[in-house]
Amino acid sequence: MGNVIGIGAAPKRKEDQRFLTGRGNYVSDIKRPGMTAGVFVRSPHGHAVIRGIDESAALAAPGVIAVLTGDDVKADGLGSLPCGWGISDAKGVPMKEPPFPMLAQGKVRFVGDMVAFVIAETPEQANAGAELLKIDYEVLPSVVGVLEAVRPGAPQLFDDVPNNICCDWELGDKAAVESAFRKAAHVAKLSLVNNRLIGNPMEPRAAIAEYEPGTDRFTLWTTSQFPHVVRFLMGALVLNIPQHKLRVVAPDVGGGFGVKQFHYGEEAVITWAAKRVKRPVKWVASRSEGYVSDRHGRDHVTEAELALDETGKFLAFRVKTLANMGGYLSTFGPNIPTNLYGPLLGGVYTTPAIYCNVKVVFTNTVPVDAYRGAGRPEATFVLERIVDVAASEMGIDRVEIRRRNMIPKEAYPYQTPVLVQYDSGDPMGCLDGALAAADVKNFGVRKAASASKGKFRGLGYSTYVEACGLAPSRFAGRLGARGGLYESATVRVHPTGQVTVMIGTHNHGQGHETTFAQIVSDKLGVPFENVDIVFGDTDRVQFGMGTYGSRSLVVGGAALSKATDKVIAKGKKIASHLLEAAEVDIQFESGKFSVAGTDRSKTFEEIAGAAYVPHNYPLEVLEPGLEEQAYYDPVNFTYPGGCHIAEVEVDPETGTVTLINYTAVDDVGTVINPMIVEGQLHGGIVQGVGQALFENAVYDEGSGQLLSGSLMDYCMPRADHLPMMKVATHSTLCTHTPMGVKGCGEVGTIGSPAAVINAVVDALSHLGVTHVDMPATPNRIWRLLQNASLPVAAE
Amino acid sequence: MQISFTLNGRPTTVEVEPATLVAELLREQLNLTGTHIGCDTSQCGACVVHLNGLPVKSCTLLVPALDGATLLTIEGLQGAPGSNRMHPMQEAFREHHGLQCGFCTPGMLMTAIALATEKPGLTEADVRHGLEGNICRCTGYQNIVISVMAGAAAMNAAKGE
């Protein structure tokens, strides 16, 4: 008999056994009888008109079964890929929302845009057939950068989207900000680029679809973070498949980071194709294919201004951003640089007036959508960079200026001027903790030691807050969400007392099978080993919105907590009957139902058994069975935050930046499993370090070609790039989630880019350097040092 | 062509097209799907297996290279005879949370075991340098490095027994 392993413990992960022994079940591992192979033919041009497609040679090739194109999609009357958010400008005019066909119709708008799908007996034959497809393109000029895309005379992606602007969005009190700027003693200004990123989960995307004519049912296995949402978007809005005839399964998924939280055209094409060819169809992306089709992240060009009084108090903050949407609107696309960006510009500071204007712009690039952090890293980067600029210009210490403006612990709940109200937090506590853990007081000694070797050492801070636990449906609905953002959980207690949980979130590395089992073990007093978590299958799990926005524990865990409460309530009714006591007198503690003030009790297992053997049951008031379901919709976002401190060394000979030390003290609320939380922080931080130092998705302006299209051209962080990081938590409890949890999946990626770049700028500040755009590659730093009095611009 | 080799300790003969990659043979023909394919440029290391005791990226190796050779994949790793434990490196990854999504894990383990076998007394720098050809997107590598050092120590201790 195993033990209860509850909240705060760090059991080893339940999911590890299968992954460690090579017995995971990823989509690409699945084989179906009679399976065919599909290959997508993608546009090699950034922008072109499709004059015609000649399928004859491809269809005649050995093994080729079918070729599908945009004309077939049109002939079958299928829908366009839907966008889940509809934002509006300040006058309430809705965003421009051109159709996003699953296979291009008439025109292609980015390198990688899907033109045709070739199905054959084997992947080799499908590839050979694809080579024989003759597509006649009339190539048009491409535009890939946001600055270029909004210029007069720029290539236009859509006839009815003037100047390529999807939406001119704004937030905040413009007049109050202007008035504050007029009174300012100092105004700090900063122009910056938030570099375009490619998520690169290690498992490439893949899908298999199957159609059963006998039942008229479809099954889609897909590398998705949200199978129920795929079922709804694809079934109801694209393919017109009734929900009860469509099963979507996302089994083991090898990392997501946002890349797999969208409904992709590939999923729809494959599902549609499976019925047309009457055989299962499988597609597995190559890594190179992922580079030109996985949704990209970030890609902002921003101008920011911070108004301060003579003591360094922030009076107002004004931000103007051009955000790249790529060639079409992806599932969450327009929501990311607007609703998940503007409301975070208050940071952990008391800035009374904030105004943000974001122009959301179409370009001939892969659609841009959420990538780990999604909007909040961009906001944090702007704010934490300009705070350093202001401190430097006013001659105030960078820690001191933060302290002067920080929201004190006792001021929570704190209403910001940009919609959100922080429920709890202690940014000063996180800052003090990080200063001590990073041994900042001896930094001077380390800097001198570096200098003696001819190296420049710098220290950078980022004191940040984010909004996660997506999301209160009511709030999201006001901001343009076209769906709800609750979560659901079912707790099924078997007659033997073992428990199966069906939950709508999706585990793709976060350790949910362990964390959620701890919650159940803790609340029901059942052994940890007696709890299994089921997710990722629309036929097994009631419903769910999936995993993204650090929502799984915050929203899904809350639904689970609520469902276990219902199980306990039902258990009390059963115990009241069995123990012949009033229901109000039944107490539940440590896995036992007992009558208050007596030694009469029943174990959880006894109650579970009785629930399924209802002899002598008062059936008129008590149903047999012990299974409860709960939906949870949060009342507010949660607001994790913290302080990150990066220490870097710059080699002026080569321009190489080495990350020497990294310290993070984060407030993630209640910690269920500290081992897993630490792992999430490590991984998140390194993804942010990747953005700051290594990663950059680069397009060629005229042709629209992606120049960083493989792991050899796009630099991912590797083991030898990194030091041992110090991470710790300094938690205040969330006041509105059932367990006080805040979420931890994205904090690392949100806090770290600013800390690293602030450290790089600090290391070079004696040369007059005031800003460095990301990524701070050796090339960029070396050029900067050759011309040290000028700020380096994005290349 | 017909190829005979030792796979995870068992004599194996397969009929296979010579242009097949070892990773494809394992995954598609032999149903050993623990060896993963994460890229197409030999960069990610998810496909690492041991060929005659040395780590190789099976996504860039054609099947004729197997003829007469000994191949060890993730499915062939074993703990001490008679124990119900996994290989010490697998145990170390579980103990130190050296994996999250699990996709890079088989390749990481195969590389780590080769590193530990090659050089007893690995330093942190040795491990970081040795894992340069294996990409993980989830862990930030910290717990992988800790796991490899612990697993290597356990392998050495077991050898000394």
Task: Provide a descriptive summary of the structure in words.
The complex is a heterodimer of chains A (795) and B (161). By secondary structure, chain A is an alpha+beta fold. Chain A folds into three domains: 16-22 and 486-632, Aldehyde oxidase/xanthine dehydrogenase, molybdopterin binding domain (Aldehyde Oxidoreductase, domain 4, 2-Layer Sandwich); 31-140 and 202-255 and 260-291, Alpha-Beta Complex (Aldehyde Oxidoreductase, domain 3), CATH 3.90.1170; 296-471 and 636-786, Aldehyde oxidase/xanthine dehydrogenase, molybdopterin binding domain (Aldehyde Oxidoreductase, domain 4, 2-Layer Sandwich). Chain A is built from 20 helices and 28 strands. A seven-stranded mixed β-sheet of chain A has the order 3-5-1-12-9-10-11. In chain A, helix 15 (512-524) packs parallel to helix 16 (552-578). The termini of chain A are far apart. Mean pLDDT of chain A is 97; it is low at 790-795. By secondary structure, chain B is of the alpha+beta class. Chain B folds into two domains: 2-76, Ubiquitin-like (UB roll) (Roll); 88-160, DNA polymerase, domain 1, CATH 1.10.150.120. Chain B has helices at 22-29, 88-95, 105-118, 124-130, 142-160; strands spanning 2-7, 10-15, 48-51, 54-57, 70-72. In chain B, strands 2-1-5-3-4 form a five-stranded mixed β-sheet, with helices on one face. The termini of chain B are far apart. In chain B, 53% of the residues are buried. The model of chain B has no long low-confidence stretch (mean pLDDT 97). Classes of the chains: A alpha+beta (795), B alpha+beta (161).
CATH topology label of the largest domain in chain B: Ubiquitin-like (UB roll)
Strand line-up of the largest beta sheet of chain A: 3-5-1-12-9-10-11
Largest sheet of chain B: 5 strands, mixed
- Tell me the series of helices and strands of chain B, N- to C-terminal: EEHEEEHHHH
Helix content of chain A: 25-40%
Supply the helix-strand structural class of chain A.
alpha+beta
Using the 3D structure, state the CATH architecture of the largest domain in chain B.
Answer: Roll
Output the CATH homologous superfamily of the largest domain in chain A.
Aldehyde oxidase/xanthine dehydrogenase, molybdopterin binding domain
What characteristic shape of chain A results from the CA principal axes? Answer: globular
What structural class is derived from the secondary structure elements of chain B?
Answer: alpha+beta
Mean pLDDT of chain B: 97
Strand content of chain B: 5-15%
Strand order of the largest sheet of chain B: 2-1-5-3-4
CATH topology of the largest domain in chain A: Aldehyde Oxidoreductase, domain 4
Task: Give the termini distance of chain A in whole angstroms.
Answer: 62 Å
